Amino acid sequence: MPAPRIPDAEFIELWKAHPSPAKLSRILDMPDRKVMERRNSIERRHHIRLETKTNQQKHISPVEYKANHTLGIENGIIVAGSDAHIWPGPYTTAFRALIKFTKELQPKAVIANGDMLDGASISRHPPIGWEKTPSLIEELKACQMALTDLEDAAGGAKLIWPLGNHDARLSSRLASVAPEYANVHGTQLKDHFPAWAPCWAAWVTESFVVKHRMRSGIHATHLNTVNSGVSIATGHLHSLKVAPFTDYNGTRYGTDCGTLAEPKGPQFINYTEAGPTNWRSGFVVFTIHKGRLLMPELVQVFDQNHVEFRGQVIAV
User: When comparing pLDDT for 294 and 13, which is higher?
Assistant: First the structure.
């Protein structure tokens, strides 16, 4: 039985959120051909243009993020946390610990490895039922407050922010629905966080890079370092683990920086359908000695008020 026909206005909104015939075909349960016929009909009758994702991307001005940010650290500590998905409210245990450790360890650099902003209200995914999510301005203010506290703890450390896919939602949303706002101040995430240097990849040394994501899947941490040929720390998968790999060139490390969010937090309950996740809350301490990365050390949440690190349970 064919799916019921939806009003033009609803089709237009769905197209703007999902400018792909294949994706809309799955959402509306109709063949791609029928989706395109409906789109063409609406364009003629309403005198508008519903562009595909490919065409929309032609209007996007180049994102002003450095491809690579080189740190060149020979000796010292780097602290990297990822996937905070910050919503308004109290800081998570992991984020409180990140502030504490940053203050005490006095790292050379603090790396916010992507997805610090969640961007729930500007997601490309439709809402689940009538779920209520924070507005974009509420998220931005919460994110600014949290990162300001982290900046204060960091002292003179370099502050680096490799872009995550959730972070990109701010510019991507505007580029999709309002391309005329390209290059207007405030339309890019970096405009709201001037203390943090944005990039796609942060090269701590010549053989150690931090970026938000590379491969996906349960073996991504291992495959990232095997295929990149260097030690590489990523986020995105929230799994908080280290995968050493040794070959004729020596030992290098694939690291997943975990999540600074609470894995059962409100950001994820509907998304995961309240199911179990192989996620761990925490962050990573990296030590560079004479230009060489030592075994990365995990700081993992133990309970609501403690983390575990180097065999100790530490109150935060």
Answer: 294
